Amino acid sequence: LARGVEAPDLAGRHVVVSAGGTREPLDPVRYLGNRSSGKQGYALARTAAARGARVTLVEANTGMPDPAGVDVVHVGTAVQLREAVLKAAADADAVVMAAAVADFRPATYAEGKIKKKDGVEAPVVTLVRNPDILAEISADRARPGQVIVGFAAETDDVLANGRDKLRRKGCDLLVVNEVGENRTFGAEVNEAVVLSADGGETPVPHGPKEALADTVWDLVVPRLA
Ligand code: CTP
Ligand code: CA
Asked: What is the pTM of this model?
Protein backbone atom coordinates (compact mmCIF):
# COMPACT_ATOMS: atom_id res chain seq x y z
CA LEU A 1 0.00 0.00 0.00
CA ALA A 2 1.15 3.47 -0.77
CA ARG A 3 0.12 4.69 2.66
CA GLY A 4 -1.11 3.05 5.83
CA VAL A 5 -4.41 3.94 7.47
CA GLU A 6 -4.83 4.42 11.20
CA ALA A 7 -8.30 2.92 11.36
CA PRO A 8 -10.15 0.60 8.99
CA ASP A 9 -12.48 3.42 7.98
CA LEU A 10 -14.38 1.29 5.45
CA ALA A 11 -15.12 -1.55 7.91
CA GLY A 12 -18.73 -2.72 7.67
CA ARG A 13 -19.12 -1.09 4.25
CA HIS A 14 -19.74 -2.73 0.90
CA VAL A 15 -18.08 -0.99 -2.03
CA VAL A 16 -18.32 -1.83 -5.73
CA VAL A 17 -15.51 -1.04 -8.16
CA SER A 18 -15.58 -1.57 -11.92
CA ALA A 19 -12.25 -1.99 -13.68
CA GLY A 20 -10.82 -2.63 -17.12
CA GLY A 21 -12.30 -1.99 -20.53
CA THR A 22 -15.33 -3.53 -22.17
CA ARG A 23 -15.08 -5.36 -25.51
CA GLU A 24 -17.92 -5.30 -27.98
CA PRO A 25 -17.88 -8.32 -30.30
CA LEU A 26 -18.30 -8.01 -34.07
CA ASP A 27 -17.95 -11.70 -34.90
CA PRO A 28 -16.41 -14.73 -33.15
CA VAL A 29 -12.86 -13.41 -33.66
CA ARG A 30 -13.14 -9.61 -33.49
CA TYR A 31 -14.21 -6.91 -31.07
CA LEU A 32 -14.15 -3.15 -30.54
CA GLY A 33 -12.09 -2.42 -27.45
CA ASN A 34 -10.13 0.29 -25.68
CA ARG A 35 -6.76 0.75 -23.99
CA SER A 36 -7.81 0.64 -20.34
CA SER A 37 -5.44 -1.62 -18.34
CA GLY A 38 -7.61 -1.91 -15.24
CA LYS A 39 -4.72 -1.03 -12.93
CA GLN A 40 -6.45 1.97 -11.34
CA GLY A 41 -9.58 -0.09 -10.63
CA TYR A 42 -7.51 -2.86 -9.09
CA ALA A 43 -5.71 -0.32 -6.90
CA LEU A 44 -9.11 0.97 -5.73
CA ALA A 45 -10.26 -2.57 -4.91
CA ARG A 46 -7.05 -3.44 -3.02
CA THR A 47 -6.98 -0.22 -0.99
CA ALA A 48 -10.69 -0.52 -0.09
CA ALA A 49 -10.11 -4.08 1.14
CA ALA A 50 -7.10 -2.89 3.15
CA ARG A 51 -9.34 -0.25 4.76
CA GLY A 52 -11.78 -2.94 5.87
CA ALA A 53 -14.46 -2.86 3.16
CA ARG A 54 -16.23 -5.80 1.62
CA VAL A 55 -15.33 -5.26 -2.03
CA THR A 56 -17.03 -6.40 -5.22
CA LEU A 57 -14.78 -5.88 -8.23
CA VAL A 58 -16.53 -6.02 -11.61
CA GLU A 59 -13.68 -6.81 -13.98
CA ALA A 60 -13.67 -6.47 -17.76
CA ASN A 61 -10.83 -7.90 -19.83
CA THR A 62 -7.85 -6.96 -17.67
CA GLY A 63 -6.12 -10.34 -17.73
CA MET A 64 -4.99 -9.67 -14.15
CA PRO A 65 -5.37 -12.24 -11.36
CA ASP A 66 -8.16 -11.69 -8.83
CA PRO A 67 -6.94 -9.60 -5.87
CA ALA A 68 -6.97 -11.42 -2.53
CA GLY A 69 -9.94 -10.83 -0.26
CA VAL A 70 -12.12 -9.31 -2.99
CA ASP A 71 -15.24 -10.75 -4.67
CA VAL A 72 -14.62 -10.60 -8.41
CA VAL A 73 -17.27 -10.73 -11.14
CA HIS A 74 -15.86 -11.18 -14.65
CA VAL A 75 -17.66 -9.54 -17.57
CA GLY A 76 -16.93 -8.81 -21.21
CA THR A 77 -19.30 -6.25 -22.70
CA ALA A 78 -20.86 -2.98 -21.51
CA VAL A 79 -24.27 -4.64 -21.25
CA GLN A 80 -22.81 -7.39 -19.03
CA LEU A 81 -20.92 -4.81 -16.95
CA ARG A 82 -24.15 -2.86 -16.41
CA GLU A 83 -25.95 -5.97 -15.16
CA ALA A 84 -23.15 -6.92 -12.77
CA VAL A 85 -22.80 -3.36 -11.41
CA LEU A 86 -26.55 -2.90 -10.88
CA LYS A 87 -26.75 -6.23 -9.05
CA ALA A 88 -23.75 -5.52 -6.80
CA ALA A 89 -24.82 -1.89 -6.21
CA ALA A 90 -28.17 -2.93 -4.72
CA ASP A 91 -26.69 -3.08 -1.20
CA ALA A 92 -23.53 -1.02 -1.75
CA ASP A 93 -22.47 2.03 0.26
CA ALA A 94 -20.32 3.31 -2.62
CA VAL A 95 -19.80 2.56 -6.30
CA VAL A 96 -16.67 3.59 -8.20
CA MET A 97 -16.85 3.36 -11.99
CA ALA A 98 -13.20 3.09 -12.99
CA ALA A 99 -13.95 0.89 -16.03
CA ALA A 100 -13.71 2.26 -19.54
CA VAL A 101 -17.15 1.42 -20.90
CA ALA A 102 -17.61 1.37 -24.67
CA ASP A 103 -20.02 4.12 -25.68
CA PHE A 104 -21.12 2.14 -28.75
CA ARG A 105 -21.42 -1.49 -29.79
CA PRO A 106 -21.89 -3.06 -33.22
CA ALA A 107 -25.60 -3.11 -34.06
CA THR A 108 -25.36 -6.74 -35.11
CA TYR A 109 -23.17 -9.70 -34.20
CA ALA A 110 -22.12 -11.98 -37.07
CA GLU A 111 -22.40 -15.61 -35.94
CA GLY A 112 -19.79 -16.57 -38.51
CA LYS A 113 -16.46 -14.82 -39.16
CA ILE A 114 -16.84 -11.82 -41.48
CA LYS A 115 -14.97 -12.73 -44.69
CA LYS A 116 -13.56 -10.64 -47.51
CA LYS A 117 -15.54 -11.04 -50.73
CA ASP A 118 -14.18 -10.56 -54.25
CA GLY A 119 -15.40 -7.35 -55.82
CA VAL A 120 -16.97 -6.08 -52.57
CA GLU A 121 -15.61 -3.00 -50.80
CA ALA A 122 -14.95 -2.99 -47.05
CA PRO A 123 -18.11 -3.58 -45.00
CA VAL A 124 -19.67 -0.72 -43.05
CA VAL A 125 -20.06 -1.38 -39.33
CA THR A 126 -23.15 0.23 -37.84
CA LEU A 127 -22.92 1.09 -34.15
CA VAL A 128 -25.61 1.64 -31.53
CA ARG A 129 -25.33 3.42 -28.17
CA ASN A 130 -24.58 1.48 -25.02
CA PRO A 131 -26.36 2.32 -21.77
CA ASP A 132 -24.67 4.97 -19.62
CA ILE A 133 -24.21 3.03 -16.39
CA LEU A 134 -22.77 5.88 -14.30
CA ALA A 135 -25.62 8.26 -15.24
CA GLU A 136 -28.17 5.55 -14.56
CA ILE A 137 -26.93 4.54 -11.09
CA SER A 138 -26.47 8.22 -10.14
CA ALA A 139 -30.01 9.21 -11.18
CA ASP A 140 -31.63 6.17 -9.62
CA ARG A 141 -29.65 5.37 -6.45
CA ALA A 142 -30.09 1.87 -5.10
CA ARG A 143 -29.81 3.26 -1.55
CA PRO A 144 -30.28 6.76 -0.17
CA GLY A 145 -26.90 8.32 0.51
CA GLN A 146 -25.01 5.89 -1.70
CA VAL A 147 -21.79 7.59 -2.85
CA ILE A 148 -21.03 7.35 -6.57
CA VAL A 149 -17.68 8.10 -8.18
CA GLY A 150 -16.90 8.39 -11.89
CA PHE A 151 -13.69 8.66 -13.86
CA ALA A 152 -13.04 10.81 -16.90
CA ALA A 153 -10.09 10.84 -19.26
CA GLU A 154 -10.04 14.22 -20.98
CA THR A 155 -7.95 16.23 -23.40
CA ASP A 156 -7.98 20.00 -24.13
CA ASP A 157 -9.73 21.98 -21.38
CA VAL A 158 -9.55 19.11 -18.90
CA LEU A 159 -11.12 20.81 -15.87
CA ALA A 160 -13.97 22.50 -17.73
CA ASN A 161 -14.78 19.23 -19.48
CA GLY A 162 -14.65 17.46 -16.11
CA ARG A 163 -17.03 19.93 -14.40
CA ASP A 164 -19.42 19.56 -17.29
CA LYS A 165 -19.26 15.76 -17.13
CA LEU A 166 -19.77 15.70 -13.35
CA ARG A 167 -22.99 17.69 -13.79
CA ARG A 168 -24.21 15.56 -16.69
CA LYS A 169 -23.54 12.27 -14.94
CA GLY A 170 -24.98 13.34 -11.58
CA CYS A 171 -22.32 11.50 -9.55
CA ASP A 172 -20.78 12.80 -6.30
CA LEU A 173 -17.11 12.70 -7.29
CA LEU A 174 -15.35 12.65 -10.64
CA VAL A 175 -11.68 11.74 -11.02
CA VAL A 176 -10.35 13.63 -14.02
CA ASN A 177 -7.18 12.51 -15.82
CA GLU A 178 -5.47 14.23 -18.67
CA VAL A 179 -4.76 11.70 -21.42
CA GLY A 180 -2.51 11.66 -24.43
CA GLU A 181 0.33 9.61 -25.83
CA ASN A 182 2.22 7.85 -23.01
CA ARG A 183 -0.13 9.16 -20.34
CA THR A 184 -2.29 7.11 -17.98
CA PHE A 185 -3.03 4.08 -20.18
CA GLY A 186 -1.22 1.06 -18.78
CA ALA A 187 1.03 3.17 -16.57
CA GLU A 188 1.81 2.40 -12.93
CA VAL A 189 1.39 6.05 -12.01
CA ASN A 190 -1.39 8.54 -12.41
CA GLU A 191 -2.00 12.25 -11.88
CA ALA A 192 -5.51 13.60 -11.49
CA VAL A 193 -7.91 16.12 -10.05
CA VAL A 194 -10.91 14.90 -8.09
CA LEU A 195 -13.93 17.16 -8.59
CA SER A 196 -16.86 17.00 -6.20
CA ALA A 197 -20.50 17.89 -6.80
CA ASP A 198 -20.31 20.41 -3.94
CA GLY A 199 -17.65 22.38 -5.82
CA GLY A 200 -14.53 20.83 -4.28
CA GLU A 201 -11.36 20.28 -6.25
CA THR A 202 -8.62 17.96 -4.93
CA PRO A 203 -5.42 17.78 -6.98
CA VAL A 204 -3.59 14.45 -6.74
CA PRO A 205 0.10 14.73 -7.65
CA HIS A 206 1.82 12.35 -10.05
CA GLY A 207 2.25 9.12 -8.10
CA PRO A 208 1.31 5.45 -7.75
CA LYS A 209 -2.26 4.45 -8.57
CA GLU A 210 -2.64 3.32 -4.92
CA ALA A 211 -2.12 6.91 -3.76
CA LEU A 212 -4.89 8.17 -6.04
CA ALA A 213 -7.08 5.27 -4.86
CA ASP A 214 -6.51 6.22 -1.21
CA THR A 215 -7.38 9.86 -1.98
CA VAL A 216 -10.64 8.70 -3.59
CA TRP A 217 -11.54 6.69 -0.46
CA ASP A 218 -10.51 9.64 1.76
CA LEU A 219 -13.11 11.72 -0.11
CA VAL A 220 -15.74 8.95 -0.11
CA VAL A 221 -15.59 8.17 3.64
CA PRO A 222 -16.98 11.51 4.97
CA ARG A 223 -19.77 11.36 2.37
CA LEU A 224 -21.01 7.89 3.38
CA ALA A 225 -24.52 7.70 4.82
N1 CTP B 1 -19.44 5.31 -18.20
C2 CTP B 1 -20.52 4.46 -17.98
N3 CTP B 1 -21.24 3.98 -19.03
C4 CTP B 1 -20.93 4.33 -20.30
C5 CTP B 1 -19.84 5.20 -20.54
C6 CTP B 1 -19.12 5.67 -19.45
O7 CTP B 1 -20.81 4.16 -16.83
N8 CTP B 1 -21.66 3.86 -21.29
C9 CTP B 1 -18.70 5.83 -17.04
C10 CTP B 1 -17.23 5.46 -17.00
O11 CTP B 1 -17.02 4.27 -16.25
C12 CTP B 1 -16.62 6.65 -16.29
C13 CTP B 1 -17.54 7.81 -16.65
O14 CTP B 1 -18.75 7.21 -17.11
O15 CTP B 1 -16.66 6.51 -14.89
C16 CTP B 1 -17.04 8.75 -17.68
O17 CTP B 1 -16.73 8.05 -18.86
P18 CTP B 1 -16.46 8.91 -20.17
O19 CTP B 1 -16.21 7.98 -21.29
O20 CTP B 1 -15.44 9.94 -19.83
O21 CTP B 1 -17.89 9.65 -20.31
P22 CTP B 1 -18.87 9.78 -21.53
O23 CTP B 1 -20.16 10.28 -20.98
O24 CTP B 1 -18.93 8.51 -22.30
O25 CTP B 1 -18.26 10.96 -22.37
P26 CTP B 1 -17.34 10.97 -23.70
O27 CTP B 1 -18.28 11.33 -24.79
O28 CTP B 1 -16.33 12.05 -23.38
O29 CTP B 1 -16.71 9.62 -23.88
CA1 CA C 1 -17.10 7.45 -23.22
From this structure: 0.95
